[in-house]
From TrEMBL:
It comes from the Bacteria. InterPro entries: UPP_synth-like (IPR001441), UPP_synth-like_CS (IPR018520), UPP_synth-like_sf (IPR036424). Homodimer. Gene3D superfamilies: Decaprenyl diphosphate synthase-like. GO terms for cellular component: cytosol. SUPFAM superfamilies: Undecaprenyl diphosphate synthase. One of its GO terms (biological process) is polyprenol biosynthetic process. The active site is at 31, 79 (proton acceptor). Binds 2 magnesium ions per subunit. One of its GO terms (molecular function) is magnesium ion binding. Keywords: Magnesium, Metal-binding, Transferase. This is Isoprenyl transferase.
Amino acid sequence: MKLPFFSKKQAAVSDLFLNETIPEHVAIIMDGNGRWAKKRGMPRIAGHKEGISTVVKIVKTAVKWKVKVLTLYTFSTENWKRPKTEVEFILRLPKEFLSIYLPDLIASNVRIELIGDIEKLPAHTREAVEDAIERTRDNDGLLLNFALNYGSRQEILHAMKEIFLDINNDEFSLQELDEQKFSDYLYTAGMKEPDLLIRTGGEKRISNFLLWQLAYTEFWFTDVLWPDFSEKEFLYALEDFCKRKRRYGGL
Ligand code: FPP
């Protein structure tokens, strides 16, 4: 029963993409790693490790379909509350991922960026990502944006403090502060706001992710756990996005 449905759906995806708009910026909350591992009688960290394979698949698909920005919620400011061993494991993954895949990413013209409070990350995490940012800075294909030690409230407060200092130093006046200027102080400065937010793992919440930037973003929730999220699932989300009418508060 399932196979014909899938192939029909896939054909529909390719037809549709010929005519419709692919989201330029896709942001993903990669949830469900722990449950994926527990279901298999494995420790939670095995789910995070498996999650890397999904990242590889989704990045490849994003490159293939010419998505411009892919933002991945990799470690939040709240994730520090997890057991130390899990935190340390997750924060080792960026280096592990980049040590294997950076050459492929460079060959695919991918540029790496990071949003979040980089100062509080362990040196090995920070250095691996900074090295990747440096080595991919001239690439103009997919922007692969890791949200690491990222929390939207922290980002907004950080922006407010910087704005306050700059106004105090007469860089600009309070009257000149508008939405665009405020956006320029966020970690995402210069990036288009997400067109599509995907959350895997069944929960339907934002979890302190891109609160300002998601004002007019389309949401896609799926019960599929991140390690099981496939190219096909990703294409369903893109296809669904293509069918939506965005009105931005207008008619
Ligand atoms: C949330 O699932 C996932 C995380 C906090 C970590 C995300 C990290 C990865 C997917 C690894 C990829 C990293 C790189 C750098 C490529 P959860 O642990 O909350 O799952 P649960 O809801 O089932 O407990």
